[in-house]
Amino acid sequence: MPLLDRLPRRLRALPVTVAYRTETAVRDGLARWATGRGWTTAVIPYSGYAGPHHARVLGRVVLAPASVDPGARRGVPGWRRLLTLERPRVEARVELDGVTTTVASDEAGIVDARLPLAGPVAPGTETAWLQVGDREPVGARVHVAPAAPVRGVVCDIDDTVWVTGVAHPLRAAWRTLRGTSTTRRSVPGMARLLQAGVEGQPPVVVYLSNGPWNLVGPVSRFLERHGFPAGAVLMTDWGITPRRWFRDGREHKASSLARLAEDLPEVTWVLVGDDGEHDPDLYREFARSHPGRVAAIALRQILPHRPTDAADAAVSPDGPPVLLGADGDVLLPLLREVLQGHAR
Question: I want to staple 70 with a disulfide (CB 3.0 to 4.6 A). Which of 64, 90, 132, 269 is the partner?
Fold first, then answer.
């Protein structure tokens, strides 16, 4: 047994706790320095979603020069987007469809507000308004799902929407830290695949990624530029936590899927991802724990093919079909065939 594993849990967690407190102290010191030079709290809006009864409105509180809109930056490399001063425990005023609430930002500066809807809201896109301090309110998109049964799509981003190369960590890190939305390359056919998943109905689309919230802007612009259907974007924070060096990406995706099932009870999902990380297992687990809520699982293959791939793609009696292909062009006819079978 390694020596570290023999130590009491509190001692094993000590280096992480020290690193977290050090990071927090440095951040708070920089915040005091910036505030002394006239920087004020601002909110960066993110896209959320709404179901029959509640809306989820998202944003992030940061410090920025009084004359700067931190959500409007474009053409900035990924590494510079990670250099932000998030502000925890700041009250943000959130308003949607006549309903107003106040929510405090969490330790990463994230505002995650759950608002009851005053009445039925038509499917499509609404605007929620977020305000902190003396800044003008900023608008955040909220994608409203129909109250009736409908099909939706959950889609991973890295190596599913755009090429990252997660199987090659150094190459993936370079693309993430150096690139912008204009330097990224789209995975062939994926935009058409997602459009097919929601065609003939009001689109319900959620992009779910382990990437940092700092990259929401480039992700959203990339999706729009390459013809992907509009939808909510759910990402995570890359900072140290009080108990972990890194956020648990698997837990982030699993908890996000579970919340989607709860928030949007009328939606049956097509789950789109790749086989480079946790998507295959996570999607199957979600389908098993939510019977009848998954129409199909579509996975882009980026790893070397295995002899069991064909069996993995078969329709099992206790779960949805799992579709495998090199890109969206290969997956599209497979998905159309499955969805036509559902319609019959």
Answer: 64
pLDDT per residue as tens digits for the range 72-128? 766 555 445 566 788 999 999 999 989 999 999 998 899 999 999 887 788 999 999
Secondary structure of 222-264 in HEC code, one letter for each residue: HHHHCCCCCCEEEEECCCCCCCCCCCCHHHHHHHHHHHHHHHC
Residues sharing a CB contact under 8 Å with residue 195, sequence separation 6 or more, in sequence order:
227, 229
Identify the CATH number of the domain in which residue 112 sits: 2.60.40
Rounded CA-CA distance 299/323 in Å is 6
Spatial distance between the Cα atoms of 111 and 164, rounded to a whole number of angstroms:
28
List pLDDT tens digits, range 247-261.
Answer: 667 899 999 999 999
Q: How far apart are CA 138 and CA 136, in angstroms?
A: 6
Residues 171 and 279 in one domain: yes
Angstrom distances, CA of residue 330 to CA of 80, 146, 205: 36, 30, 21
What whole-number distance in Å separates Cα of residue 27 and Cα of residue 7? 30
| Number of structural domains found in the chain | 3
β-partners of residue 154 are 206, 271
* 165 shares its domain with 308: yes
Which structural domain, as residue segments, surrounds residue 248? 150-343
